[in-house]
From TrEMBL:
It is found in: Endomembrane system. Keywords: Membrane, Sugar transport, Transmembrane, Transmembrane helix, Transport. The chain crosses the membrane at residues 37-54, 66-84, 90-112, 121-142, 154-175, 196-218, 238-260, 267-288, 294-313. This is Solute carrier family 35 member B4. Pfam families: UAA (PF08449). PANTHER family: NUCLEOTIDE SUGAR TRANSPORTER SLC35B4 (PTHR10778:SF4), SOLUTE CARRIER FAMILY 35 MEMBER B (PTHR10778). Coiled coil: none annotated. The keyword Transport applies.
Length: 331
């Protein structure tokens, strides 16, 4: 029952979160900082009350380790959101972040000296090819759509290229953070909810550096068209409503993943998250009519095929089917 509930939370929370994020980004492409700050503040407040019991509960993992983890987490979150300022379409943003398997494998080989099966290497090749196809197609679109003159086209392309570099850096940093977190859990045990709180609480002072941009977008949000709240009957600027819903759905999404990691094997978690990303991508393309060519679909299919191959879903399904046939024969 808990597993089904967690899966529902992941799909409803994460897919809704993507919708509200795109509603914000479409009108204010540079609003990533205020969105990140709102998410961090909300999750930190909830964790301070319910996880640390208003600061009275001591952490299981030393704070010095959390500081390192938080520095990486804050950097990844800010850069991922800020990359949307550089002509990065939301579908490409989601596809690119689906390439986390590549970064995890590369850093796992370099840092942890891991070795993988041939199917794992094949899956990484597929994911890499899929992302490459989508990236190249998006680059061509940027050159065509943004290039009023040749000089404007070159500028738009270089602007977009900087966004791709930011996504690549965030991808590698996220993988490095995952490896660091894995070593901490092996040493101190799994304390996912505690890590969730400190990952969102400790970076809050860092937003002082972004306060000017956050305040500017807060003013812009306040100037957006008013909409009536369904329950309280009061009118609020529509962008603040979208931001509130984005924060709430982000919390639901993260809590769903947390419950899932405690109830299911990592294979199941990876599969659910992968399917959720695919559904979010479909919603983004169909609902918001984002530009998506046949080559984008090919690249997307290859990315998710490689991801499923990496998680060994096919072999697990075959094993389950063989097990059912063996049970029937035994009967």
């Amino acid at each position: 029952m808990n597993t089904l509930f967690a899966i529902v939370l992941v799909f409803v929370g994460c897919c809704s979160n993507v919708v509200f994020l795109e509603l914000l980004v479409r009108d204010f492409p540079g609003c990533g900082n205020i969105v990140t700050f709102a998410q961090f503040a909300f999750i930190a407040l909830e964790g301070f009350i319910f996880e640390t019991n208003f600061g009275r509960k001591k952490p299981h993992i030393p704070l010095s380790n959390y500081v390192i983890m938080v520095t990486m987490f804050f950097t990844v979150s800010v850069i991922n959101n800020y990359a949307l300022n550089f002509n990065i379409a939301m579908p490409l943003h989601m596809i690119f972040r689906s390439g986390s398997l590549i970064a995890n494998m590369i850093l796992g080989i370099i840092i942890l000296k891991k070795r993988y099966s041939a199917s794992k290497y094949l899956s990484i090749v597929l994911v890499s090819v899929g992302i490459f196809i989508c990236t190249i197609m998006s680059a061509r679109q940027v050159s065509v759509e943004k290039g009023g003159t040749e000089e404007d086209g070159v500028y738009a392309f270089m602007h977009w290229l900087l966004g791709i570099a930011m996504l690549t850096f965030a991808l590698l940093m996220s993988a490095r953070m995952g490896i660091f977190q894995e070593t901490l859990y092996k040493k101190y045990g799994k304390h996912s909810k505690e890590a969730l709180f400190y990952n969102h609480c400790l970076p809050l002072p860092g937003f002082i550096l972004l306060s000017t941009d956050i305040y500017r977008h807060a003013v812009l949000f306040s100037q957006s068209s008013p909409v009536e709240m369904p329950v309280i009957g009061q009118s609020v600027p529509v962008m603040w409503l979208y931001l509130l819903m984005n924060v709430v759905t982000q919390y639901v999404c993260i809590r769903g993943v947390f419950v899932l990691t405690t109830e299911c094997a990592s294979l199941t978690v990876t599969l659910v998250v992968t399917l959720r990303k695919f559904l979010s991508l479909i919603i983004s393309i169909l609902y918001f009519q984002n530009p998506f060519t046949a080559w984008h679909w090919v690249g997307t299919a290859v990315v998710f095929l490689g991801t499923l191959l990496y998680t060994e879903v096919w072999s697990s399904i075959r094993t389950a089917v063989r097990g059912e046939k063996a049970d029937k024969k035994a009967e």
